[in-house]
Inverse folding.
Protein backbone atom coordinates (compact mmCIF):
# COMPACT_ATOMS: atom_id res chain seq x y z
CA UNK A 1 0.00 0.00 0.00
CA UNK A 2 2.88 2.35 0.74
CA UNK A 3 4.26 1.74 -2.75
CA UNK A 4 0.85 2.40 -4.31
CA UNK A 5 0.56 5.71 -2.46
CA UNK A 6 4.00 6.73 -3.74
CA UNK A 7 3.01 5.75 -7.26
CA UNK A 8 0.03 8.05 -6.84
CA UNK A 9 2.42 10.77 -5.67
CA UNK A 10 4.54 10.28 -8.82
CA UNK A 11 1.47 10.58 -11.06
CA UNK A 12 0.30 13.71 -9.21
CA UNK A 13 3.78 15.26 -9.35
CA UNK A 14 3.87 14.59 -13.09
CA UNK A 15 0.52 16.31 -13.55
CA UNK A 16 1.76 19.25 -11.50
CA UNK A 17 4.96 19.55 -13.55
CA UNK A 18 3.08 19.44 -16.85
CA UNK A 19 0.60 22.01 -15.53
CA UNK A 20 3.34 24.44 -14.55
CA UNK A 21 5.07 24.03 -17.92
CA UNK A 22 1.84 24.65 -19.82
CA UNK A 23 0.66 27.62 -17.72
CA UNK A 24 4.09 29.29 -17.84
CA UNK A 25 3.46 30.05 -21.50
CA UNK A 26 1.03 32.80 -20.46
CA UNK A 27 1.50 33.38 -16.74
CA UNK A 28 4.54 34.20 -14.63
CA UNK A 29 5.71 31.45 -12.31
CA UNK A 30 5.40 33.81 -9.31
CA UNK A 31 1.70 34.10 -10.07
CA UNK A 32 1.32 30.36 -10.59
CA UNK A 33 3.05 29.68 -7.25
CA UNK A 34 0.83 32.10 -5.33
CA UNK A 35 -2.45 30.79 -6.75
CA UNK A 36 -1.38 27.20 -6.16
CA UNK A 37 -0.44 27.91 -2.51
CA UNK A 38 -3.45 30.12 -1.73
CA UNK A 39 -5.87 27.60 -3.23
CA UNK A 40 -4.00 24.79 -1.49
CA UNK A 41 -4.49 26.58 1.83
CA UNK A 42 -8.25 26.63 1.24
CA UNK A 43 -8.16 22.90 0.47
CA UNK A 44 -6.17 21.84 3.50
CA UNK A 45 -7.98 23.97 6.13
CA UNK A 46 -10.86 21.46 6.53
CA UNK A 47 -8.36 18.58 6.57
CA UNK A 48 -6.29 20.25 9.28
CA UNK A 49 -9.40 21.06 11.35
CA UNK A 50 -10.60 17.45 11.22
CA UNK A 51 -7.12 16.20 12.07
CA UNK A 52 -6.86 18.49 15.06
CA UNK A 53 -10.25 17.35 16.30
CA UNK A 54 -9.07 13.75 16.06
CA UNK A 55 -5.84 14.54 17.90
CA UNK A 56 -7.80 16.33 20.64
CA UNK A 57 -10.15 13.35 20.99
CA UNK A 58 -7.19 11.00 21.33
CA UNK A 59 -5.92 13.17 24.19
CA UNK A 60 -9.34 13.33 25.82
CA UNK A 61 -9.77 17.06 25.20
CA UNK A 62 -12.80 18.90 23.85
CA UNK A 63 -12.71 20.87 20.61
CA UNK A 64 -9.77 21.08 18.21
CA UNK A 65 -6.29 21.55 19.61
CA UNK A 66 -4.97 25.12 19.35
CA UNK A 67 -3.03 25.95 16.20
CA UNK A 68 -0.82 28.65 17.75
CA UNK A 69 2.65 27.25 18.32
CA UNK A 70 5.35 28.55 20.69
CA UNK A 71 7.85 27.57 17.98
CA UNK A 72 6.34 29.93 15.43
CA UNK A 73 9.76 31.32 14.48
CA UNK A 74 10.88 27.94 13.18
CA UNK A 75 7.54 27.55 11.38
CA UNK A 76 8.10 30.95 9.78
CA UNK A 77 11.63 30.01 8.72
CA UNK A 78 10.43 26.72 7.25
CA UNK A 79 7.65 28.49 5.34
CA UNK A 80 10.01 31.09 3.88
CA UNK A 81 12.44 28.37 2.82
CA UNK A 82 9.58 26.41 1.23
CA UNK A 83 8.45 29.54 -0.64
CA UNK A 84 11.94 30.00 -2.11
CA UNK A 85 12.22 26.32 -3.01
CA UNK A 86 8.81 26.19 -4.70
CA UNK A 87 9.40 29.40 -6.67
CA UNK A 88 12.77 28.15 -7.89
CA UNK A 89 11.26 24.76 -8.64
CA UNK A 90 8.40 26.16 -10.71
CA UNK A 91 10.80 28.47 -12.57
CA UNK A 92 12.93 25.42 -13.38
CA UNK A 93 9.95 23.47 -14.70
CA UNK A 94 8.95 26.42 -16.87
CA UNK A 95 12.34 27.09 -18.45
CA UNK A 96 14.15 23.75 -18.49
CA UNK A 97 13.29 20.39 -20.04
CA UNK A 98 11.01 18.68 -17.53
CA UNK A 99 13.19 15.58 -17.21
CA UNK A 100 16.34 17.62 -16.54
CA UNK A 101 14.68 19.76 -13.88
CA UNK A 102 13.15 16.70 -12.21
CA UNK A 103 16.48 14.86 -12.08
CA UNK A 104 18.16 17.83 -10.40
CA UNK A 105 15.34 18.04 -7.85
CA UNK A 106 16.46 14.64 -6.58
CA UNK A 107 19.69 16.16 -5.26
CA UNK A 108 17.73 17.26 -2.15
CA UNK A 109 18.50 14.01 -0.21
CA UNK A 110 22.18 14.53 -1.00
CA UNK A 111 22.08 18.02 0.49
CA UNK A 112 20.27 16.69 3.57
CA UNK A 113 23.12 14.22 4.15
CA UNK A 114 25.66 16.99 3.58
CA UNK A 115 24.00 19.43 6.01
CA UNK A 116 22.78 17.04 8.72
CA UNK A 117 26.12 16.98 10.62
CA UNK A 118 26.25 20.79 10.64
CA UNK A 119 22.61 21.56 11.46
CA UNK A 120 21.50 18.48 13.40
CA UNK A 121 24.75 17.19 14.83
CA UNK A 122 24.19 13.81 13.20
CA UNK A 123 27.10 11.51 12.53
CA UNK A 124 27.54 10.45 8.91
CA UNK A 125 29.92 7.58 8.22
CA UNK A 126 32.24 7.10 5.28
CA UNK A 127 29.81 4.94 3.30
CA UNK A 128 27.14 7.63 3.19
CA UNK A 129 29.77 10.31 2.49
CA UNK A 130 30.97 8.20 -0.45
CA UNK A 131 27.42 7.73 -1.73
CA UNK A 132 26.81 11.47 -1.44
CA UNK A 133 29.99 12.19 -3.42
CA UNK A 134 28.84 9.78 -6.13
CA UNK A 135 25.46 11.52 -6.21
CA UNK A 136 27.06 14.92 -6.70
CA UNK A 137 29.18 13.41 -9.47
CA UNK A 138 25.90 12.50 -11.15
CA UNK A 139 24.81 16.10 -10.72
CA UNK A 140 27.93 17.26 -12.53
CA UNK A 141 27.06 14.91 -15.39
CA UNK A 142 23.65 16.57 -15.72
CA UNK A 143 25.12 20.09 -15.45
CA UNK A 144 27.65 19.35 -18.22
CA UNK A 145 30.19 22.07 -17.32
CA UNK A 146 32.26 23.33 -20.24
CA UNK A 147 34.94 25.91 -20.90
CA UNK A 148 32.16 28.50 -20.90
CA UNK A 149 30.96 27.34 -17.48
CA UNK A 150 27.55 25.99 -16.46
CA UNK A 151 24.23 27.16 -17.86
CA UNK A 152 22.86 29.42 -15.07
CA UNK A 153 19.38 27.99 -15.62
CA UNK A 154 20.62 24.57 -14.51
CA UNK A 155 21.63 26.05 -11.17
CA UNK A 156 18.06 27.12 -10.33
CA UNK A 157 16.79 23.57 -9.54
CA UNK A 158 20.00 23.00 -7.55
CA UNK A 159 19.17 26.07 -5.44
CA UNK A 160 15.61 24.78 -5.07
CA UNK A 161 16.89 21.41 -3.81
CA UNK A 162 19.40 23.00 -1.43
CA UNK A 163 16.82 25.31 0.14
CA UNK A 164 14.28 22.46 0.30
CA UNK A 165 16.87 20.30 2.09
CA UNK A 166 17.30 23.00 4.73
CA UNK A 167 13.50 23.19 5.07
CA UNK A 168 13.42 19.42 5.59
CA UNK A 169 15.99 19.69 8.36
CA UNK A 170 14.02 22.49 10.03
CA UNK A 171 10.94 20.28 9.71
CA UNK A 172 12.80 17.45 11.41
CA UNK A 173 13.54 19.76 14.36
CA UNK A 174 9.88 20.81 14.52
CA UNK A 175 8.56 17.25 14.29
CA UNK A 176 9.90 16.50 17.76
CA UNK A 177 7.16 18.65 19.33
CA UNK A 178 4.77 19.72 16.57
CA UNK A 179 1.90 17.79 15.00
CA UNK A 180 2.13 17.19 11.23
CA UNK A 181 -1.14 19.09 10.74
CA UNK A 182 0.29 22.16 12.47
CA UNK A 183 3.44 22.04 10.35
CA UNK A 184 1.42 21.66 7.15
CA UNK A 185 -0.86 24.57 8.01
CA UNK A 186 1.93 26.95 9.00
CA UNK A 187 4.04 26.12 5.95
CA UNK A 188 1.18 26.54 3.48
CA UNK A 189 0.07 29.80 5.11
CA UNK A 190 3.56 31.31 5.14
CA UNK A 191 4.23 30.27 1.54
CA UNK A 192 0.95 31.82 0.38
CA UNK A 193 1.71 35.11 2.15
CA UNK A 194 5.36 35.18 1.04
CA UNK A 195 4.49 34.62 -2.62
CA UNK A 196 1.76 37.30 -2.71
CA UNK A 197 3.99 40.42 -3.21
CA UNK A 198 5.96 39.07 -6.23
CA UNK A 199 2.73 37.68 -7.69
CA UNK A 200 1.08 41.12 -7.52
CA UNK A 201 4.03 42.69 -9.34
CA UNK A 202 3.71 40.32 -12.32
CA UNK A 203 -0.04 39.70 -12.18
CA UNK A 204 -1.80 39.01 -15.47
CA UNK A 205 -5.52 38.35 -15.59
CA UNK A 206 -5.84 34.58 -16.17
CA UNK A 207 -8.25 33.40 -18.81
CA UNK A 208 -11.07 31.00 -17.99
CA UNK A 209 -8.98 28.06 -19.21
CA UNK A 210 -6.04 29.29 -17.13
CA UNK A 211 -8.21 29.20 -14.01
CA UNK A 212 -9.27 25.67 -14.87
CA UNK A 213 -5.65 24.57 -15.24
CA UNK A 214 -4.65 26.41 -12.06
CA UNK A 215 -7.35 24.50 -10.20
CA UNK A 216 -6.18 21.20 -11.64
CA UNK A 217 -2.58 22.11 -10.79
CA UNK A 218 -3.59 22.80 -7.18
CA UNK A 219 -5.39 19.47 -6.95
CA UNK A 220 -2.34 17.64 -8.31
CA UNK A 221 0.03 19.46 -5.93
CA UNK A 222 -2.21 18.80 -2.92
CA UNK A 223 -2.71 15.16 -3.93
CA UNK A 224 1.04 14.74 -4.23
CA UNK A 225 1.60 15.99 -0.68
CA UNK A 226 -1.20 13.79 0.67
CA UNK A 227 0.06 10.70 -1.17
CA UNK A 228 3.59 11.27 0.14
CA UNK A 229 2.32 11.51 3.71
CA UNK A 230 0.22 8.36 3.35
CA UNK A 231 2.96 6.49 1.51
CA UNK A 232 5.68 7.09 4.08
CA UNK A 233 3.17 6.62 6.88
CA UNK A 234 2.00 3.25 5.53
CA UNK A 235 5.22 1.69 4.28
CA UNK A 236 8.81 1.54 5.45
CA UNK A 237 10.68 4.61 4.19
CA UNK A 238 13.62 2.62 2.79
CA UNK A 239 11.17 0.55 0.71
CA UNK A 240 8.78 3.19 -0.57
CA UNK A 241 11.64 5.59 -1.41
CA UNK A 242 12.59 3.23 -4.25
CA UNK A 243 9.36 4.10 -6.05
CA UNK A 244 9.90 7.88 -5.91
CA UNK A 245 12.28 7.63 -8.85
CA UNK A 246 9.49 6.46 -11.11
CA UNK A 247 8.58 10.13 -11.16
CA UNK A 248 11.51 10.70 -13.54
CA UNK A 249 10.10 8.04 -15.88
CA UNK A 250 6.57 9.44 -15.72
CA UNK A 251 7.71 13.04 -16.23
CA UNK A 252 9.99 12.07 -19.13
CA UNK A 253 7.15 10.19 -20.83
CA UNK A 254 4.72 13.10 -20.34
CA UNK A 255 7.31 15.60 -21.59
CA UNK A 256 7.88 13.51 -24.72
CA UNK A 257 4.21 13.04 -25.63
CA UNK A 258 2.98 16.52 -24.65
CA UNK A 259 5.95 18.83 -25.32
CA UNK A 260 8.06 16.65 -27.66
CA UNK A 261 10.99 16.82 -25.21
CA UNK A 262 13.59 14.08 -25.42
CA UNK A 263 15.96 13.69 -22.43
CA UNK A 264 19.61 13.92 -23.43
CA UNK A 265 22.18 11.29 -22.53
CA UNK A 266 23.63 13.43 -19.74
CA UNK A 267 20.28 13.72 -17.98
CA UNK A 268 19.65 9.97 -18.27
CA UNK A 269 23.11 8.96 -16.99
CA UNK A 270 23.00 11.58 -14.25
CA UNK A 271 19.55 10.37 -13.16
CA UNK A 272 20.87 6.83 -12.77
CA UNK A 273 23.88 7.95 -10.71
CA UNK A 274 21.87 10.32 -8.47
CA UNK A 275 19.10 7.76 -8.07
CA UNK A 276 21.38 4.89 -7.04
CA UNK A 277 23.34 7.05 -4.59
CA UNK A 278 20.19 8.49 -2.99
CA UNK A 279 18.63 5.05 -2.67
CA UNK A 280 21.78 3.70 -1.05
CA UNK A 281 21.69 6.55 1.48
CA UNK A 282 18.02 5.82 2.26
CA UNK A 283 18.69 2.09 2.65
CA UNK A 284 21.73 2.73 4.83
CA UNK A 285 19.90 5.13 7.13
CA UNK A 286 17.02 2.66 7.52
CA UNK A 287 19.44 -0.17 8.31
CA UNK A 288 21.19 1.88 10.99
CA UNK A 289 17.85 2.78 12.61
CA UNK A 290 17.04 -0.93 12.91
CA UNK A 291 20.22 -1.63 14.94
CA UNK A 292 19.00 -1.67 18.56
CA UNK A 293 22.25 -2.38 20.40
CA UNK A 294 23.87 1.07 20.06
CA UNK A 295 22.64 4.62 20.74
CA UNK A 296 21.48 6.63 17.77
CA UNK A 297 24.27 8.46 16.00
CA UNK A 298 27.05 6.15 17.21
CA UNK A 299 26.71 3.31 14.72
CA UNK A 300 29.73 3.28 12.38
CA UNK A 301 28.79 3.24 8.73
Amino acid sequence: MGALWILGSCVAATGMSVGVKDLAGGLDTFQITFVRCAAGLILILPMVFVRRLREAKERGEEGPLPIVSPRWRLHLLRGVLAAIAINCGYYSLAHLPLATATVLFFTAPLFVTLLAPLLLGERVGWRRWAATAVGFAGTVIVLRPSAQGVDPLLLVPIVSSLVFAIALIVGKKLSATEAPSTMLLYTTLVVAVATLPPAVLVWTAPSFSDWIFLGILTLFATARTYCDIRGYGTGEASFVANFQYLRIVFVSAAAYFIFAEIPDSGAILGACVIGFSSLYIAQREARLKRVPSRPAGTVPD
